[in-house]
Amino acid sequence: MAFTSENALFNKYELGKLLGCGAFAKVYHARDLRDGQSVAIKVINKKRLSINLMGNIKREISIMNRLNHLHIVKLYEVLATKTKIYFVMEFVKGGELFAKVAKGRFSEDLSRIYFQQLISALSYCHSRGVYHRDLKLENLLLDENGDLKVTDFGLCAVTGQIHPDGLLHTLCGTPAYVAPEILAKKGYNGAKIDVWSSGVILFVITAGYLPFNDPNLMNMYRKIYKGEFRCPKWMSSDLIRFLSRVLDTNPMTRITINEIKSDPWFKKGYKEIKYSPIDDNIKEEDKKLLDLNAFDIISFSSGLDLLGLFDDSHSAVRDVERLTVTERPDKVIEKVEDVVKGEKKNIVRLRRKKEFGVELEGQNGKFIIGLEFYRLGDNLAVVEAKRISGNAIGFTELWKKKIRPVILPQKEQQVPGN
């Protein structure tokens, strides 16, 4: 694999081959300059995202950062510039399961192994209140050992999104894998639709074709809604019986994850992956996931200029910077005051604004700079610097050349990618 330093991102990653391309993102193979490790970097173009899709991305980041399972792709970090978001993830060498099954259906034993790994990942997610909602072959990858990895949590949901009726209501999923209750538009259980989609996956890898398929989309939906599918003759009677329980159109009687684990066909050779109960605790953080804001991503990128990443107001003020610093707001303000005191002939005046805010007026009113400080943790804050009025030269000379280097040491500064 050829890497070039010219494509280095944030002085940390060298980009390599393009692995895939979608409507909003491209995925590249890359190398971590610090240890030479291969990673995958998903590059998302912010300009192509609606507010709703940005919300999906924030939720995906927050959830993936908390999931740690052998059969789920790991998210290492998130970086950002004014126009792009970069997911730095585990590089899964074997590619999509879709590409492998396209060469020919799997044996029942191999299909069982992949299905067991998928159910292990789903059981882990569901126990933490996370529902994938877009399971399909394209979102299942294989590592160098041939083990399955679930990816793409962009449409996932958490328990905090459940309505008072106990159901989810957002329409989502891929047509051939979508559960009948989603088509009914009456609300659905997130765990139940993941089970349905997993059943479609099991059918495809064992049969070599989709259980519900038709060139006419409405005809396909009609088959899904009625549960009309035929198993090929080479499937064992145990697997046919099992699939009838997984692809049950009635979500109330459809088999559950725990029941799947107890089924004779599934149990053959299955070994449960044990995880510590304190490994993650997403359930207690569901409410936080519903109120995600810029800080959920800012915390991944200390010292990074995040201008415009989540700002959809398109302010006319062009000179704005947001940085994260590893200090409390009051300590940062003290540093700003020290810089102002050091200016010759007192040409800059400092006025306190609100609890953690100041205004800097320079050169007898020729420019005004506003600084806001937002506390994220005991020793983590976001600093927003904005040129409120006046010339840009004053903003550059005072903020960029004098204050910023003091509150953000050189070792913490990063150069954003394009």
Please characterize this protein's 3D structure.
The protein is of the alpha+beta class. It has helices at 51-64, 97-101, 108-127, 180-184, 190-207, 217-226, 237-246, 257-262, 264-267, 286-290, 295-298, 329-341, 392-407; strands at 8-9, 13-21, 25-32, 38-45, 75-80, 84-90, 130-131, 140-142, 148-150, 157-158, 320-325, 348-353, 357-362, 367-377, 380-390. Residues 156-163, 165-173, 277-317 and 410-418 have low confidence and may be disordered. It is built from 13 helices and 15 strands. It has three domains: 5-92, Phosphorylase Kinase, domain 1; 97-285, Transferase(Phosphotransferase), domain 1 (Orthogonal Bundle), CATH 1.10.510.10; 302-412, TATA-Binding Protein (2-Layer Sandwich). The longest helix is centred in the N-terminal third of the chain and has 20 residues, at 108-127. A six-stranded antiparallel beta sheet has the order 1-2-3-4-6-5, with no helix packed on it. Helix 3 (108-127) packs antiparallel against helix 5. Helix content is 31%, strand content 22%.
